[in-house]
Specification:
This protein has ten helices and eight strands. With 196 residues, the chain is α+β, with helices and mostly antiparallel strands. It starts with a helix and ends with a helix.
Length: 196
């Protein structure tokens, strides 16, 4: 019964499951270990499992390591189709004081912000592998790259700003609101005056 329950959760999750999801659904974690021994699941990393012949969803794998992880900067630009560079290293924003598993992950660049702006502009998106992940919306991402210009590739920065300026879906009032909250209104206005 527990094995069937786990397999149903895995199917619902597009082929992936975390230990936390199993435990949250009332199933003991030892069943995951048994399923790995039997070959019905593969351990991808600590606390993260997939069906055999899986392709690991790095976005979901990273997101499952912290409920406060928000994809940001160049990674968010890629997810919003304002960059064509598929990330090899993922930008993740977390609250100041975070000290968890993501600090040890080599393919993650961490950015820290105060808790009062951690959720500013956060949305839920679907990863390229079909999993729900938290990402900053495009206006928050534009504010982040302007604020942290020295942390982002110049070519990605320029193309993203031009792409945003040309976008029919841009929301300049939201961009201004975020810029005020993040105390970068002057910088954002300077870039937008040149581009619009």
């Amino acid at each position: 019964m527990n094995y069937e329950k786990i397999l149903k959760m895995v199917e619902k999750n597009n082929g992936y499951i975390t230990t936390n999801e199993v435990v949250d659904n009332g199933v003991e974690r030892r069943f995951l270990t048994n399923m790995v021994k039997k070959g019905s699941l593969v351990r991808i990393s600590k606390g993260y499992y997939g069906l055999p012949n899986y392709i690991a969803d790095e976005y979901y794998k990273i997101a499952s390591k912290s409920k406060n992880a928000r994809f940001s900067m160049a990674t968010a630009l890629y997810l919003h189709k304002l960059s064509n560079r598929n990330p090899l290293v993922y930008n993740v924003t977390l609250p100041f004081g975070y000290s968890g598993a993501l600090q040890k992950q080599k393919n993650v660049i961490l950015n820290f912000v105060s808790k009062d702006i951690l959720d500013l502009g956060v949305i839920e998106m679907i990863s390229p592998f079909g999993m729900k992940i938290k990402v900053y919306d495009i206006e928050r991402t534009i504010c982040d790259i302007i604020k942290n210009k020295n942390k982002i590739d110049g070519e990605i920065f320029g193309k993203a700003l031009k792409g945003y300026a040309r976008s029919k879906n841009k929301n300049l009032s939201k961009l201004t609101k975020y810029a005020k909250i993040m105390k970068i209104e002057k910088k954002v206005n300077e870039y937008m005056e040149v581009l619009l």
